[in-house]
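Colleagues,

For the teaching module next term, I've prepared a clean inverse folding example: a structure given as tokens, and then the sequence designed for it. I'd like students to try predicting residues themselves before seeing the answer, so please don't circulate the second half yet.
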């Protein structure tokens, strides 16, 4: 479990390192893009940041406890971590947290 958790945190850190300057601070930081793209596209795109967070977590963790731990921050900010199959993009355009919300885990 620890190795999977560490891999997840590495992905979250890459999302944070790229997302903070480029999207939150609105400051172009090209140096952060390679690590972001590597993490987002590795293993056939399992870690794509715009998919529902639950999809990424279920592809990474076999333990429901680790997935619940990783998705707690979604609930904290008022979003659902679970995919809504009948909605466009699994619901990420409405109430479902996209996988990029894993960057909240990297903040802690």
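(Answer key — instructors only)
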């Amino acid at each position: 479990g620890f190795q999977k958790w560490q891999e997840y945190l590495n992905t979250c850190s890459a999302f944070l390192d790229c997302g903070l300057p480029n999207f939150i601070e609105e400051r172009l930081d090209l140096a952060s893009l390679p690590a972001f793209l590597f993490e987002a596209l590795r293993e056939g795109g399992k870690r794509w940041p715009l998919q529902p967070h639950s999809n990424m977590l279920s592809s990474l963790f076999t333990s429901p406890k680790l997935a619940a731990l990783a998705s707690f921050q979604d609930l904290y900010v008022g979003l659902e971590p679970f995919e809504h199959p009948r909605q466009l993009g699994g619901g990420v355009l409405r109430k479902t947290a996209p996988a990029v919300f894993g960057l909240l885990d990297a903040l802690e």
